Amino acid sequence: MLTNQQIDTIHRLRFVEKWTVRKIARHLHIGRRTLVKYLIKPAQVRSPRTRTSKLDPFKPAIQEWLQQDASVTAAVIFQRLREEGFAGGCTIVKDHLQAIRTETKVRRAFVRMEPPAGERFESDWGHFGALLYDGAPRKLYAFCLVECHSRKMYLEFTHSQTFETFVRCHIHAFQAMGGVARELWFDNLATVVAEHDGNLVRFNPRFLGFAREYGFVPRACHVAAAWEKGKVERAIGYVRQNFWPLRNLIDLPDINSQAHQWLQQVANQRRHRETGQIPDERFRPECLRPLPAITPDYRDCAEALVHKDLRLSFDGNRYCVAPRYVGRRLTVRADSSSVTIYDQHQEVVRYPRSWRRGQTFGAERFEKELFAQMAAAERSAAQHRVVMWLGPASEEYLRRLANTDRSLSRQVRELLTLIRDYGPDPVAAALAKAHAAGAFGADYVANILRQQQSRRDVQPPLELKDPALNQLATDPLSLAAYDAFILRSRKESCELTTSETGSTQPHDHEPESGPDSD
Q: Does residue 158 sit in the same domain as residue 136?
């Protein structure tokens, strides 16, 4: 077969230079029949050669298996062919299946939809690897929502795809947009679609409740028909190409802060290729439906048992509560910024959300409270036992005793010891006497008890021999004069002792007397 350059030379010599066929054949050393053939038909087609394949005898069987199940894989067909005696490899089977499916594949056409303002939102998830917290990875997802008329975007990164997280992202997007579109289009997510059979869709009941609260109509795309929400699909691709490269990310708040800045400065300020307008300028918030007056609570919710060490577990971390909740189940509600613990509807404590694992929060605060309560409980139990044995009148005595500078816990222990030694009734009587005398202390009560226990019997009056003397009555004498006399004597004795002591000290101007003095 001649080359294109040889064919061009033949045509030039024959039709331009007017050479004869014989002369051209001699010049180019080509046969005249070949020259005539290329002069008549310059473009010659190589006749195809039929080649046999080891797979040819088994192609009818492959066709039958594909009719039974069109999605059967090449590996399964190769296993069946080996059982039928096929001696070839798996590659030839894969190539044959690809050729058959390419010929039978039907390319579907669709009409581009341009909804009016406020008519349609589209939302979807995107996977963006993971973030590391102290070496531990947390999967990273991007929630994206697009207002289809203006192409305005909302972007938020999360570490989960739970129903609560999915709904919270929608609420944040609605608040950023300033309203809700009439329709929201979704892929066949498990959080949205419970069952999809052809054109029949059964939505998740919890998601239908969310749709009723915000007044939008949910729409689910057909299975494997991502082009039905192509605007959000392209938006996620745009995030991968424009936002994600060359980013230094620290944690979830950091990446969401960067995403918010990127939306305001880049994504919603660019001139869109399809609309030819800037999304923020094309966006018409007045066409959206208003938001409900009260934002529903869609935080992550879980019940957790409070253990003896004051800790409960949630999302890989431990959170401490007050000692009175030990052994009870409390409700934990969390979003991307905080973790709040409730006892039924009453808030117990709130902590900032941490995406690290193995952390403990609030231990120092509540363990200190536990230590204080343990000491107070011990004191209150001892006081309760004192009141139980001695009666209600002892409460006032203990209250007055607490106002003194004495240790209340020690005084209570000593009173309990007196109760054990003397019995409750004698101690109660002695305590009443001490209270009446204004003597507050276990030592006063103990002194009264000792006096009562060692009291002498009353002696009879002395009988004199003269009966007249027995009838004499003496006036009562006051001992105050004797007390004053004794105190004055003691004072004079102290002054005398001081003067004598001072006279023995030598004066500075007098020489000390010694054995050598005259």
A: yes
